Amino acid sequence: MKPSDFPPDSSLPTGARLVEATRHTGGGNTAEAVAIAEEVPIALVFNGISHAVMMATPADLEHFALGFALSEGIIDDAAACRDMQLVSRGDAGTEVQMEIGSREFARLKERRRSLAGRTGCGLCGVDSLVALELDAGTVRRPDWSRRLGFDAITAGMAAMSSRQALNARTGGVHAAAWLLPDGSAVHVAEDVGRHNALDKLLGWLALQRRAGDAPEGFAAVSSRASFELVRKCARLDVPALAAISAPTALAVQLARQSGMALLAFCRPAGMTLFAA
Questions:
Q1: Domain with CATH 3.10.20.10 in the chain
Q2: What is the mean pLDDT of residues 239-255?
Q3: For this structure, is 81 an active site residue?
Q4: Which one is the CATH code of 40-131: 3.10.290.10, 3.10.20.10, 1.20.120.530, 3.30.450.40?
Q5: Residue 96: alpha-carbon gap to chain centroid
Q6: CATH for 143-275?
Q7: Rounded-to-integer distance, Cα 233 and Cα 211, Å
Q8: Looking at 121, 124, 233, 266, which residue is catalytic?
C-alpha cells in the first residue's frame, strides 16, 4: 500500500498525514494507513534575518510566530509586528517572514551579537540564564485567579482534552488551552512541541487582546511545566498556568517571583498548588 492508495479521509485534521504501517497482533499482521502528526522545519525570519528554525506542526503558524516573538521578548506587543507572510520552501519547510519595528529589530540584533560571542556550551550555564532574562516581571492578578479551585481545573483539563482533534487522530501532540475562570475552554492549540503549542495559544491571545475581545482566563498545558513555559506566560501577563504533569524547581521559583499561580499534577484525582 502506497500513500496514493490510501482512501481519502476528509476528517483528517490539519497537521496530520497518513503513512503506511503494519499492525502486529496475536491474530496476524495487517497493513494499515495510520494518521501521524507532521513535524516540519519552520524558520522564523525577522526583517529578512533568520532568527530560529523550529520543528513544529504546520498549523496556526501565524499564531505561533507572533506568540514566539512576544514570549521570547523580541517584541513587546502585537502591534510591533507590522507584517507577516508565510513562504513555503517545499520539502525544506516554511518561512514565517515578519516585519518588526526598528527599535525591536535593533534589540534583536544586539541579542544575536551577544549570543554569537559565547563559547563552551552555548546557552547553558550562568551567563546564558542571565541572557534568558529569568526575571519576567510581575504578573497582574485578578481576584478570581486567587480562588481557582479543583472543580474549575478538572473541568478545564477535561475540556482541553476533548478539543484535541489532532491528538485524537495521531496520539502524538501537546496542547495548550485558554480556559475561563470556570474551566470552560475558549481556544485550544496543538503542536508536536509543548513550547510551540503554548506559543500558538499566546499568539492567538495577543491578537484577541489587540482586538479587545480577549476573555479573562488562564492557560493550561498537557505537559510538564518547565521554566520556559512559566516565563512565556508571565511575559504575556497570564495570571495562572495549570499543567497536567510536574513542574521543575526553576518553574516554581519563577512563578513565585512573578506572582503567577502555578498548578501542576492537574488530574481527576487531584492537583498540587505550587505558587498561589
A1: 40-131
A2: 97
A3: no
A4: 3.10.20.10
A5: 16
A6: 3.40.140.10
A7: 19
A8: 121
